[in-house]
Design a protein that fits this description.
Largest sheet: 8 strands, antiparallel, barrel
Number of helices: 1
Strand order of the largest sheet: 1-2-3-6-7-8-9-10
Strand content: over 45%
Order of helices and strands: HEEEEEEEEEE
Number of domains: 1
Structural class: mainly beta
CATH architecture: Beta Barrel
Radius of gyration: 17 Å
Shape: elongated
CATH topology: Porin
Distance between the termini: 33 Å
Length: 164
């Protein structure tokens, strides 16, 4: 079932990207916060955005799909030292952005994170983001991401997106 869902997401994303007005792809590096900071040391991600609709020069609406890898860390307990396993997610979400002053934008991604590790459940995906556009081709951003599973996978991120 998981493979079918992932295949459907990739097909939908490919079709959407071919018809998109704006297509962005890039990566991020983040520090786990909250519950996740107990078990994970760093999180890396890759994202692709496609915006179908530019309502006007200020507002863009579209979708995003990505990949998140939370790298496990060693932690000490009363029973000894343990190594947590990496946690992998495929977030799929709607994306909305408001652009101010022609180069600063803010918005939100809201959707679902599909687990790619067998021991995980999926969860609500929420990502508020603030970014700066450089020459309308490169976007530098900072964000907070939250994946609500049995623990809250929170990340403080910074990253870069390239527009095509």
């Amino acid at each position: 079932m998981k493979k079918l869902l992932i295949t459907a997401v990739i097909a939908l994303f490919t079709f959407g990207a071919m018809n998109a007005q704006t297509f962005k792809i890039g990566g991020s590096l983040g520090i786990p916060v909250g519950d996740a900071s107990d078990f994970y040391s760093v999180a890396v991600g890759a994202d692709a955005y496609f915006y179908f609709t530019d309502i006007d020069d200020l507002i863009s609406i579209g979708g995003t799909a990505g990949f998140r890898n939370f790298f496990g860390k060693e932690y000490d307990t009363v029973l000894g030292t343990f190594q947590s396993e990496d946690s992998l997610f495929l977030p799929v979400a709607g994306a909305a952005r408001i652009k101010l002053f022609g180069m600063i934008s803010g918005g939100i991604d809201l959707g679902y994170a599909i687990p790619l590790s067998d021991f995980l459940d999926g969860g609500l995906y929420f990502k508020p983001v603030v970014s700066v556009d450089l020459a309308n081709r490169i976007e530098l951003f900072v964000s907070y991401e939250s994946i609500s599973d049995y623990i809250n996978y929170g990340i403080l991120n910074c990253g870069i997106l390239f527009q095509f």
